[in-house]
Write a structure and sequence with these properties.
Number of strands: 3
Structural class: alpha+beta
Distance between the termini: 16 Å
Radius of gyration: 15 Å
Order of helices and strands: HEEEHH
Strand order of the largest sheet: 1-2-3
Strand content: 5-15%
Length: 108
């Protein structure tokens, strides 16, 4: 309903998540981002966070990937390259990340 306002769209989605009979049973973390803002939806739609940093890490290796990506943020790499390099580093150095990384990028 709010294609121009990502924050409001996420709040609206969180409301739907909480109130829908089937969705409210879904426990997940969802990262949503555009060129201006990054948001984290968590806890069955009860929370929408806008982190203070440009990096978001979720899942079992979230803190590891977050740390590596934070170190790479000032590099010449774009967001996709930073995410891929952080996941690859963690796959080689921890047991929490699988070496088979699938990174989905949606272009509008």
């Amino acid at each position: 309903e709010n294609p121009e306002d990502l924050r409001q769209a996420c709040v609206d989605f969180a409301y739907e998540w909480r109130s829908d009979k089937f969705l409210r049973r879904c426990e997940a973390h969802i990262v949503v981002a555009d060129k201006d803002v990054s948001l984290l939806l968590t806890d069955m739609g009860h929370s929408v966070f806008e982190p203070s940093s440009e990096v978001i890490g979720i899942g079992g290796a979230g803190n590891y990937v977050y740390s590596v990506a934070t170190d790479l943020i000032d590099s010449e790499n774009d967001a996709e390259q930073i995410a891929r390099k952080a996941l690859e580093y963690c796959a080689e150095n921890t047991e929490y990340v699988d070496k088979n990384v699938v990174l989905d990028k949606i272009n509008f």
